[in-house]
């Protein structure tokens, strides 16, 4: 029957309670971190999608004629369009004679300035050879148009358009009354089409004045009413659209000057245009471009709301040649809530796939006057910032869970396992102070013995210390005995070797060579811990030897070692190399035994000697099976053999390890490679000067 202290109940209770609460706390934290990581990954993917979407939206806007108009006419978005200034269109010119083409051109280009009473667009074409004209197009609401009769000198009796253009110190003024073309259609829904004939405006038109030849203008009025007042058709307001081509002499003269033409004009933003649409009589203008209530066209700064927080948009003209960026916009974070620094730091360290890669998108926008490069740079820090804001708000729930776990653990720890903890500290102090067998005798646990949890654990610890003491003593005795045995074995082997050396020590006795090798092997292994350590710690004495005579001697004595048909191929005269003769003979013998083990019966082994200016190469070749390619380097490691029964046959995978170790200590190398019909081992030694 097992004693009471053998029960694991005290340990199981302590480990179970602490482990359960620790696991629960770790699981809570791990769950929170896992959710944060998944949310970060999801947020990063959403950000990548949003980044791509933002880039596509910005590129689409800039590819659109309105975006190209903004590229060609960069402004801050706070410009005051009083007086009106012409814009550079992404078109060569405007087909001002066709109502629908003009409307489509100005609406797609986005050059229309919105007024309370209508719209206006003033622009120049992208090609100066279109004539150097300034185009004006717009719309207004009025009653049915009143036409000017030809030959009538008083222009105030009809609807008319007054235009004033000021540039480079000169001012051009035109007054263009509406002249009806063709017969008026009696149908109410039919519209009205007419010409705007331009005259030089000198305050009044002189009798017999001729129109300006290159001034062109058209006006179209819709037949439907925009609004109908309580008085019926009298209050009917109809929408009219007009287009003008203004012949500005200064711009046209610049086309034919000798100096290089610059287009658009460098002072384009300083050209002032004032357009008024006047009703018959002396009433207020139906449309005035100097009206302060105007909505500007699309500007590059209007792209800012498309940017996510931290994203940066840059626009530059190609080739930039070191020029500053045309525009730089940065998305602004609108989150006033500040996240916790600790949570922000944790989220930054959560690794997600691809998060460290910078986000940057580039696209080229082609315009009639050159190409522009769009560079959109993402800011993945906004992912951390937004996630940290959300995580900070819900971190109180995780903190409350951890606090509840800690309070439950403290209640169980203090109320149940307090004494077990005291005993655990005592056991830990014992394990830290014990260093040897004698110190174990100094540990006394008798004061802790008893029948409670502490006493059971103390009794078990005392028994454990006794067993440790006995095991340490036995191990010490075994180590001393093993050491004495190695010394005795070495001494017993060395004694008969000394006697054999006395009997066969003559230089003409072939046996003396093998006795010397046995003595060296005993000295290597004498008193060492393992054969591999012994061989690696051996010191060899390399000196100049006649390698040709050495190999001839090995080939001649090979039958004495049981290896027949060993042939030498090489120079007959002396050839000197640096080596230690006995270890080198061990190397060659190990390789020859491997070759003899694998060669077919009756085949021969070749010792081939070659020399260069600095090295001597010994190639040992035999016929037989090839060595697996993945084993060509491993066969030189200690204990490696390709035979499953190598240990039973006395082959412990040691021979080639000894060969490689000895060759390295002699400053040489040994390698193996397969031949068409067998295997070749190459021994490379340093060449020496003859003695």
TrEMBL record:
Span of domain Histidine kinase: 488-689
Source superkingdom: Bacteria
Key words of the record: ATP-binding, Kinase, Membrane, Nucleotide-binding, Phosphoprotein, Transferase, Transmembrane, Transmembrane helix
Known catalytic reactions: ATP + protein L-histidine = ADP + protein N-phospho-L-histidine
Residue ranges crossing the lipid bilayer per the database entry: 394-416
Domain annotation HAMP: ranges: 414-473
Protein name: histidine kinase
Organism: Chitinimonas prasina
């Amino acid at each position: 029957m097992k004693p009471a202290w053998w029960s694991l109940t005290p340990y199981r209770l302590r480990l179970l309670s602490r482990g359960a609460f620790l696991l629960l706390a770790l699981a809570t934290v791990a769950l929170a971190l896992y959710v944060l990581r998944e949310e970060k990954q999801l947020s990063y993917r959403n950000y990548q999608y949003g980044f791509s979407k933002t880039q596509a939206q910005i590129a689409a806007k800039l590819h659109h004629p309105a975006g190209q108009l903004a590229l060609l006419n960069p402004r801050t978005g706070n410009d005051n369009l009083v007086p009106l200034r012409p814009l550079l269109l992404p078109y060569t010119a405007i087909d001002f004679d066709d109502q629908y083409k003009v409307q489509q051109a100005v609406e797609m280009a986005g050059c229309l300035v919105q007024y309370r009473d209508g719209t206006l667009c003033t622009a120049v074409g992208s090609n100066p050879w279109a004539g150097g004209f300034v185009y004006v197009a717009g719309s207004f609401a009025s009653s049915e148009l009143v036409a000017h009769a030809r030959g009538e000198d008083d222009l105030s009796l009809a609807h008319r358009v007054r235009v004033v253009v000021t540039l480079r110190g000169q001012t051009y003024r035109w007054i263009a009354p509406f002249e009806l073309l063709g017969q008026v259609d009696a149908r109410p829904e039919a519209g009205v089409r007419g010409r705007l004939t331009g005259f030089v405006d000198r305050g009044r038109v002189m009798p017999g004045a001729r129109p300006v030849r290159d001034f062109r203008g058209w006006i179209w009025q819709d037949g439907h009413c925009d609004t109908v007042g309580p008085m019926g058709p009298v209050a009917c307001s109809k929408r009219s659209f007009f287009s003008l081509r203004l012949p500005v002499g200064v711009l046209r003269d610049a086309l034919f000057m000798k100096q290089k033409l610059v287009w658009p004009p460098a002072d384009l933003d300083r050209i002032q245009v004032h357009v008024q649409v006047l009703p018959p009589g002396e009433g207020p203008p139906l449309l005035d471009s100097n009206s302060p209530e105007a909505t500007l066209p699309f500007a590059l700064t209007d792209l800012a709301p498309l940017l996510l927080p931290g994203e940066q948009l840059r626009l530059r003209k190609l080739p930039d040649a070191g020029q500053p960026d045309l525009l730089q916009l940065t998305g602004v974070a609108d989150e006033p809530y500040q996240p916790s620094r600790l949570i922000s730091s944790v989220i930054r360290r959560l690794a997600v796939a691809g998060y460290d890669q910078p986000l940057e998108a580039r696209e080229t926008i082609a315009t009639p006057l050159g190409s522009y490069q769009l560079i959109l740079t993402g800011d993945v820090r906004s992912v951390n910032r937004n996630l940290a804001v959300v995580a900070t708000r819900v971190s109180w729930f995780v903190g409350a869970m951890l606090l509840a776990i800690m309070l439950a653990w403290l209640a169980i720890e203090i109320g149940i396992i307090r004494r077990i903890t005291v005993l655990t500290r005592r056991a830990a102090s014992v394990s830290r102070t014990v260093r040897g067998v004698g110190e174990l005798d100094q540990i006394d646990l008798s004061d802790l013995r008893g029948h409670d949890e502490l006493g059971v654990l103390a009794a078990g610890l005392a028994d454990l210390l006794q067993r440790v003491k006995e095991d340490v003593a036995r191990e010490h005795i075994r180590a001393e005995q093993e050491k004495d045995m190695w010394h005795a074995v070495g001494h017993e082997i060395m004694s008969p070797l000394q006697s054999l050396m006395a009997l066969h020590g003559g230089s003409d006795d072939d046996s003396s060579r093998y006795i010397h090798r046995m003595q060296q092997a005993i000295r290597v292994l004498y008193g060492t811990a393992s054969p591999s350590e012994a061989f690696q710690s051996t010191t060899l004495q390399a000196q100049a030897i006649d390698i040709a005579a050495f190999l001839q001697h090995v080939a001649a004595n090979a039958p004495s070692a049981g290896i027949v048909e060993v042939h030498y191929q090489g120079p007959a005269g002396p050839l000197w190399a640096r080596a230690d003769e006995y270890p080198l003979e061990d190397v060659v013998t190990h390789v020859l035994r491997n070759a003899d083990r694998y060669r077919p019966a009756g085949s021969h082994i070749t010792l081939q000697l070659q020399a260069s200016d600095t090295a001597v190469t010994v190639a040992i070749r035999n016929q037989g099976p090839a060595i697996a390619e993945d084993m060509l380097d491993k066969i030189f490691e200690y204990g490696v053999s390709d035979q499953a029964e190598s240990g039973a046959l006395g082959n412990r995978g040691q021979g080639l390890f000894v060969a490689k170790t000895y060759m390295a200590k002699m400053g040489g190398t040994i390698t193996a490679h397969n031949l068409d019909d067998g295997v070749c081992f190459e021994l490379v030694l340093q060449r020496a000067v003859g003695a």
